[in-house]
Design brief:
heterodimer, A: about 550 residues, mainly alpha, Cytochrome C Oxidase, Chain A, about 65% helix, globular, B: Four Helix Bundle (Hemerythrin (Met), subunit A), 6 helices
C-alpha cells in the first residue's frame, strides 16, 4: 500500500459502513489508535482539515502579532528603534510577517477548509489521497515551526549586512520555507485531484459548488506558483552553501528572490478562494442558489489567471533603474495591464453578486458570515484600487506628456507610489480580506466542520474588530504611501538603517498618526481572531448535531 | 435468496476515477514549472553576463558537449522503452512490460552515471561563478527528478509482478510514463539551454 492509496478503513468509515467483521474471528483485529496517536496517524480528511484550521488560525495570530510589532516600530518613525535592537531584526520580522501570514496562515487555512468541505460538496467519501493529505499537513506544520524558530534564532531570509557571516539559521529559514512550500504544494495537489476525479457521475466541473470551483482555480494557480518559489529558494540555498555567495544567497538576496510572492499580482493568487466562499455565503444569505454560475466561474478563472505573479520578480530588475534600457518589472506594460485587468474582473464579480442579490428578490439574512464576506469583498476591492493607483503613474504618463498642465496635483500625488507603503496597504487589504472570508467560511460550514454551528452573537462581536481592524491596517498603509512612507521600513547600508533615517517622508507627524491608527487596527484584528477562536472552542465543547444537519451545512 | 442473486444483473461498473493519473499530472506540471523557473534564472543571468561582454562559463572549466549528448540520446531511447512498457501492459504482456520497464530504468541509471562522469570531468567549481552554481543546481535537480522517476518505475514494475496491472488497469504505467516523458523533456531542454548554447 502506498501513499497514494486510501486506507480501506478510512473509506469504509467515511462511507458509513460498519467495518467490523460479520463473525467473530480468532485473528487479532486492528483497532484504530485513539488520542494523540490517532491524530498523528489519521487519514480522515475531516480531522486533517480541522488540524489545518486550528494551526493556521494560531499562526495567523502570530503573524498579526508580528505586524503589530512592526506597527509599534513605525508609530515613532523619527525616534529610532523601540522594539527591535537593530535594522536587521526589523528586516527579519518584516519577512517573517509575510511568510507567516501567507504561507503559514492564509493558504493552509483555505486548504484546511477545502480538505474538510470539498469531499462533502462532491459527495465523496474522502479526499483523493488521504495519506498524502496527512503527509502534506505534517510537512507544512514542521516546516512552519522550523521557519519561525529559525527566524527568531537570528535567521530570517538573509541579512541586511552584506558582509555578515551567513549563519546556519538563515539556511534553516530558507530550507524550512521550502518545506512549507512542498507541504502546501502536495496539499494543493490533493485538493486538485479530488476536484477532478472524485466528482459523482454526471457532475461536471461547472456544476460544482462555488467554493469547490474557486479551489480548483486556486490550486491550479498555486501549482504554477509554488514550484517557482521552491526554485528561488533552492538557488538561494545552494549559493549560500558556497564559500562566497554570488548574488542569490548573500545579503538580503534570499528575501528579494521570493518577494514577488508577497506583492501584486501574486498576492491576489493566495486570495482566490475568497471569491468562492463569498459566492456561497452571499447566495445562502439570500436563500437562493447561484444564478449565472458560468459567468461567475469565468470571472474566478480570469481572476486566477491574472493573479499568477511568478513572472513579476523584482530580483531581475536592472541594477540601475534610471538607465535608458532599464528593466523594472513594475514599469512594464504587462504589469500595468494586469493591475488594470484584475480591477475590472473584481468589478465584474461585484456585478455578479449584485445581480444575484437583485434576482433573489428578498432581503438577505444578516449573519456573521454574510457581514464578513461583504466586508472581505470590500477589502479586495480596496486592494485592486490600490493596485490601480500604484500603476497610475506609468499608465497616465501618456496624458501627462500630452498636456503637463492638466490635473497637475493628481499626477504629483501619483508620483513615486511604487515602493511606497501603498504596496503594503495593497497586500494587507487583500490578505486580511481573504482572512475574513476564511473566517466566514468557518462560520458557514461550522456544522459540517465542528459538529455544531458557531455562536452568532459572539460572531457579530468578532466581525467588528476583524473587519474594522483590517480596514484600518490596510487604509493607513495605503494612505501613508501618498506621503512618501516607504514600503520597507529599513534599508541596506553600512550599517543598515531603519526608522529614524527616512527624512524624505512628507508630513511626518501625520504619517506617524496614521501608523498609530494602523497599530490599533492590528490589535483589533488580533482581538477579533481571539473571539473567533473562543467561539470555535465553545462550539467544540458542546454536543454535536446529527449527521443530516451536518450535511446541510456543507 | 440464491435464485434472486443469480437472476440479478450485474451493476454497471463505475467509471474509473484515474486518481493516480491526475495526481501524477499535477506533480509533473509542478516539476516542469520548477525547472522553467530555474532555467529562467539561468538564461537571464547568462544574457546579463554576455551583454556585459564577459565569459559566462569560466574559461578554466572544460564543459564538453559529448557526455550530455550521449545522455540526451539515452534519455530519448528510454522514451521508446517506456512506451513499449505501456503498450505491453495494455495487451496483458506482463513479461515484456517488466522487461521494458527494466530497460527504461537502466537507461535512467546510465544518465546518472554519465552526469556524474561529467561532474568530475568538467572541472567546474560550484561556488566559482554564477554559471557554475546554476549548472549544478539545474543538473542536480534533474538528477533528483530522475531518481524519483526510477523509484516510480520500480514501484510500477513490482506492482505489475504482483499482478496489479493488466489491460483492464494500466493507470500506474501510464502515470509513470507521463512523469518519465517529463524527465526526458526537461533533459532535452537542459541539454539545449546549458550545453549546446554554453
Amino acid at each position: 500500500m502506498t501513499l497514494t492509496e486510501t486506507r480501506p478503513e478510512t473509506e469504509a468509515v467515511a462511507a458509513g459502513d460498519d467495518v467490523r467483521p460479520a463473525t467473530q474471528s480468532s485473528a487479532p483485529q486492528w483497532t484504530p489508535p485513539t488520542g494523540l496517536a490517532g491524530i498523528l496517524s489519521t487519514g480522515d480528511h475531516q480531522v486533517i482539515g480541522r488540524l489545518y484550521i486550528v494551526f493556521s488560525l494560531l499562526l495567523s495570530g502570530l503573524a498579526l502579532t508580528l505586524g503589530m510589532l512592526i506597527g509599534i516600530e513605525q508609530a515613532d518613525i523619527d525616534g529610532g528603534f523601540g522594539v527591535f535592537g537593530q535594522a536587521n531584526e526589523l528586516f527579519q520580522v518584516f519577512g517573517l510577517y509575510r511568510t507567516t501570514l501567507i504561507l503559514c496562515g492564509l493558504v493552509p487555512l483555505f486548504l484546511g477548509l477545502a480538505t474538510a468541505i470539498v469531499p462533502r460538496q462532491l459527495s465523496a467519501s474522502s479526499v483523493a489521497f488521504p495519506r498524502a493529505a496527512a503527509a502534506a499537513f505534517w510537512t507544512w506544520l514542521v516546516g512552519a515551526i522550523a521557519h519561525i524558530a529559525a527566524t527568531f534564532s537570528y535567521g530570517g531570509l538573509g541579512s541586511l549586512e552584506a558582509e555578515a557571516a551567513r549563519g546556519q539559521s538563515v539556511e534553516l529559514t530558507v530550507l524550512s520555507l521550502g518545506m512549507i512550500g512542498v507541504g502546501l504544494l502536495v496539499g494543493a495537489g490533493v485538493i486538485f485531484t479530488t476536484l477532478v476525479t472524485q466528482r459523482p457521475a454526471g457532475m461536471d466541473l461547472l456544476q460544482m459548488p462555488s467554493f469547490s470551483w474557486s479551489m480548483l482555480v486556486a490550486t491550479g494557480v498555486w501549482l504554477f506558483s509554488l514550484p517557482v518559489l521552491l526554485a528561488n529558494l533552492v538557488v538561494s540555498w545552494v549559493d549560500m552553501r558556497g564559500g562566497d555567495s554570488l548574488g542569490f544567497g548573500g545579503g538580503d538576496a534570499p528575501f528579494e528572490m521570493v518577494a514577488w510572492a508577497f506583492d501584486a499580482p501574486q498576492v491576489y493568487a493566495w486570495t482566490i478562494p475568497l471569491l468562492g466562499i463569498t459566492a456561497e455565503v452571499f447566495t445562502a444569505a439570500h436563500r437562493s442558489s447561484p444564478k449565472l454560475f458560468e459567468p461567475m466561474a469565468f470571472i474566478v478563472g480570469a481572476f486566477g489567471l491574472l493573479s499568477f505573479g511568478a513572472w513579476a520578480q523584482s530580483f531581475f530588475d536592472s541594477a540601475d533603474p534610471l538607465a535608458q534600457d532599464a528593466h523594472v518589472v513594475t514599469n512594464e506594460v504587462v504589469f500595468t495591464a494586469f493591475a488594470l485587468a484584475i480591477a475590472l474582473v473584481v468589478l465584474a464579480y461585484g456585478g455578479w453578486l449584485a445581480f444575484n442579490a437583485y434576482s433573489a428578490g428578498e432581503r438577505p439574512q444578516i449573519t456573521p458570515q454574510f457581514a464578513l464576506v461583504t466586508l472581505s469583498g470590500a477589502l479586495l476591492t480596496a486592494a485592486v484600487v490600490a493596485g490601480v493607483l500604484r500603476v497610475a503613474e506609468p499608465a497616465l504618463g501618456v496624458l501627462r506628456e500630452a498636456d503637463s498642465d492638466i490635473w497637475r496635483g493628481f499626477f504629483d500625488a501619483m508620483d513615486d507610489l511604487e515602493g511606497s507603503s501603498l504596496v503594503t496597504g495593497l497586500m494587507n487589504f487583500a490578505l486580511l480580506g481573504a482572512l475574513l472570508a476564511a473566517v466566514a467560511g468557518l462560520f458557514h460550514w461550522a456544522p459540517a466542520l465542528l459538529g455544531r454551528p458557531l455562536n452568532a452573537p459572539l460572531g457579530f462581536l468578532a466581525v467588528l474588530p476583524l473587519a474594522g481592524g483590517a480596514i484600518l491596517v490596510g487604509a493607513t498603509d495605503a494612505l501613508g504611501g501618498f506621503f512618501e512612507q516607504p514600503a520597507r521600513p529599513y534599508a541596506a547600508g553600512n550599517p543598515p538603517y531603519g526608522p529614524g533615517h527616512f527624512d524624505e517622508i512628507d508630513a511626518l507627524g501625520f504619517v506617524e498618526a496614521l501608523n498609530v491608527i494602523g497599530l490599533i487596527g492590528y490589535i483589533a484584528v488580533l482581538g477579533g481572531l481571539a473571539l473567533v477562536a473562543l467561539n470555535v472552542a465553545r462550539s467544540l465543547g458542546g454536543a454535536p448535531m446529527d449527521e443530516a444537519e451536518q450535511g446541510e451545512g456543507a | 435468496m440464491a435464485d434472486i442473486a443469480v437472476g440479478t444483473p450485474l451493476a454497471a461498473p463505475l467509471p474509473r476515477q484515474r486518481t493516480l493519473l491526475v495526481g501524477t499530472v499535477f506533480g509533473t506540471a509542478a516539476s516542469l514549472m520548477y525547472f522553467a523557473a530555474l532555467l529562467a534564472v539561468y538564461l537571464r543571468e547568462r544574457s546579463d553576463a554576455l551583454s556585459d561582454g564577459g565569459d559566462w562559463i569560466p574559461s578554466s572549466a572544460n564543459v564538453q558537449l559529448a557526455p550530455p549528448t550521449v545522455a540526451a540520446w539515452t534519455m530519448l531511447m528510454s522514451v521508446v522503452t517506456m512506451q513499449w512498457a505501456v503498450y505491453s501492459i495494455a495487451r496483458d504482456d506482463r513479461t515484456h512490460a517488466i522487461m521494458a520497464t527494466a530497460l527504461t530504468t537502466l537507461f535512467g541509471m546510465s544518465v546518472v552515471v554519465t552526469t556524474s562522469f561529467q561532474y568530475t570531468d568538467m572541472g567546474l567549481v560550484a561556488d566559482e561563478s554564477i554559471a557554475a552554481t546554476l549548472i549544478y543546481v539545474i543538473s542536480g535537480s534533474h538528477l533528483a527528478m530522475i531518481g524519483i522517476g526510477l523509484v516510480f518505475l520500480l514501484l510500477m514494475a513490482f506492482r505489475a509482478l504482483a499482478g496489479q496491472y493488466s489491460s483492464r488497469q494500466t493507470d500506474g504505467f501510464v502515470a509513470a510514463s507521463i512523469y518519465w516523458y517529463a524527465v526526458v523533456f526537461v533533459y532535452v531542454v537542459i541539454w539545449t539551454a546549458i550545453f549546446v548554447l554554453k
